[in-house]
Amino acid sequence: MYKEEGYQLMGAAFEVYNEIGYGMAEEIYQQSLEIEMSLRNIPFLTKQELEVFYKGRSNSRRKRLGVHSSWSKEDFLRNMEKTRANYESI
């Protein structure tokens, strides 16, 4: 359904991994991914709250990185295409 968006997100994640390697704390990867997504003009929301349930009971609230939801699909896809073109020109 969102094949191109997935391609862009995976590309950003692989770039972070290639740049800093393994063994870092989750927060380091999250901050690095935020930087990489910004460099690629991939819209996102930083540390959005996500309530987790276990067997119908609220377990905890977690903060997670999320793709920016206020953009229209057309704006999002247009930015993804620009990012892909920039990435492929490297």
Task: Briefly characterize the structure.
Helices cover 53% and strands 24% of the residues.
- Counting H and I runs of at least 4 residues, what is the number of helices? 3
Tally of strands: 2
- Report the C-alpha radius of gyration, rounded: 15 Å
The coarse silhouette is globular
Major sheet: 2 strands, antiparallel
Question: SSE order, as H and E?
Answer: HHEEH
Strand content: 15-25%
Name the structural class.
alpha+beta
Q: Give the strand order, joined by hyphens, for the main sheet.
A: 1-2
Which stretches of 5+ consecutive residues score pLDDT under 50? none
Distance between the termini: 27 Å
As a percent range, the share of helical residues equals: 40-55%
- Whole-number count of domains: 1
Average the pLDDT over all residues and give the rounded result: 78
Walk me through this protein's architecture.
The chain is of the alpha+beta class and 90 residues long. The chain has one domain. It is 53% helix and 24% strand. The protein has 3 helices and 2 strands. A two-stranded antiparallel sheet has the order 1-2. Helix 1 crosses helix 2. The longest helix is centred in the N-terminal third of the chain and has 18 residues. The chain is globular.
